[in-house]
Design brief:
Structural class: alpha/beta
Number of strands: 10
Radius of gyration: 21 Å
Shape: globular
Number of helices: 13
Order of helices and strands: HHEHHHEHEEEHEHEEHEHHHEH
Strand order of the largest sheet: 3-2-1-7-8-9-10
Strand content: 5-15%
Largest sheet: 7 strands, mixed
Oligomer: single chain
């Protein structure tokens, strides 16, 4: 769910505690501490002890350059980092867009602050607002977007190593990604657990859906305690698999694709810095994000760099996530295949559900206001930015 993310991703209130990573041991075979690696790199760069210029693997800082790299044979392990921006064209509201975002439209719940609806302490005392909202946003009422199916296509072509998602809408799973393909950093509605730590009984998606749509507050059948979907609330730890997987995935990453996220909430935002220094990074978003501040840029570390003279690996496509994926698919020669996949899978969802609400979801506006499951490109392409591209234009 502009850079919409799962509930946790909208956190901006200082009074709410950001989730912390659970303690977990490094991935099997790993003997390095990521924090120590970062500190060593920082110290080396500050002392001018780096190993010299970093290799530039892209022949051009543009979407075309990214596509050629993806087809070069050297790009074999793609990681996608996604936020709620990939789901807005499905009809799911984002969290922070002024006026239309979820946090702008919670007045009816009489909350002390918008974020309280996803704060674990408040939820335990007042679960009603969350479950009322859950009826409006519950998985199964929406179809995956072009962006979701693009990631499935990456998997089919043997290029996707993992998708790290902030979203809780489960649309990655609906589109066809399996549990081993996903790191659901902010949890999922797919399972639920009793909050009584002596019980922790697990419940599946159908059980929770029945409770929510019957307007019951879900209570454990064994101990009568409150049951909560396994999404990460403020004040809760991130899944242990988040930490263990990133230690094995990111050092092997050949291309990082970031879509529909503001990269403003830690620890998820820091993942852009965990890929090797030469790994290209593609941002598909309505606005640039994840950029370094001036101090970090001066030291040669930090976030993404689209515009400086030192830019060598970062490219931004500014527009909707669906349009960005269609544009990249076209450069790769995959567009017809992607459009056919979306049409076929949406038809299958309609057939399985008997139309009705599903057909209505198919007519949700895309991010650019067009109708239908596959938004077409506008005559004027979305902005693609990169140092070399600007030099060519000049």
């Amino acid at each position: 769910m502009s850079d919409p993310e799962a509930p946790i991703s909208g956190a901006e209130a200082d009074s709410l505690q950001e989730p912390q990573e659970e303690e977990s041991s490094p991935a099997e075979g790993s003997t390095e501490d990521p924090e120590m690696d970062f500190l060593r790199s920082l110290f080396a760069r500050m002392q001018g002890l780096g190993s010299g210029p970093v290799e530039q693997v892209l022949d051009e800082l543009s979407l075309e350059g990214m596509a050629r790299y993806m087809q070069s044979g050297d790009c074999k392990n793609i990681i996608c980092m996604v936020g709620a921006g990939i789901s807005t064209s499905a009809g799911i509201p984002d969290f922070r867009s002024p006026g239309t975002g979820l946090y702008s439209n919670l007045q009816k719940y009489d909350l002390p602050c918008p974020e309280a609806i996803f704060e674990i302490g408040y939820f335990k005392q007042h679960p009603e607002p969350f479950f009322t909202l859950a009826r409006e946003l519950y998985p199964g009422q929406f179809k995956p977007t072009v962006c979701h199916y693009f990631m499935c296509m990456l998997k089919e072509k043997g290029l996707l190593r993992r998708c790290y998602t902030q979203n809780i809408d489960t649309l990655e799973r609906v589109a066809g990604l399996q549990e081993e393909d996903l790191i659901e950093a902010h949890g999922t509605f797919h399972t639920s657990h009793c909050l009584n730590f002596l019980c922790r009984e697990e419940y599946g998606l159908p059980w929770m859906k029945e409770k929510i749509f019957s307007e019951e507050i879900p209570k454990c059948e064994k101990c009568n305690s409150l049951v909560k979907p396994d999404i990460v609330f403020f004040g809760e730890s991130l899944p242990a698999r988040f930490s263990s997987s990133l230690r094995s995935d990111f050092p092997r990453c050949d291309l990082l694709i970031i879509m529909g996220t503001s990269l403003s909430v830690q620890p998820f935002a820091s993942l852009v810095m965990k890929v090797p220094p030469k790994t290209p990074r593609l941002l598909i978003n309505r606005e640039k994000t994840g950029e370094s501040d001036s101090l970090m840029s001066f030291m040669g570390i930090g976030g993404m760099d689209f515009d400086s003279e030192k830019a060598y690996r970062d490219v931004a496509f500014l527009g909707s996530c669906d349009d960005g994926c269609l544009a990249l698919a076209e450069k790769l020669g995959w567009k017809d295949e992607l459009v056919a996949m979306v049409t076929r899978e949406h038809a299958a969802i309609d057939a399985a559900e008997g139309g009705g609400a599903s057909a209505s979801a198919a007519n949700q506006s895309s991010g650019d206001g067009e109708k239908g499951p596959v938004p077409e490109q506008k005559d004027k392409p979305a902005e693609q930015t990169g140092a070399r591209e600007r030099e060519k234009e000049e």
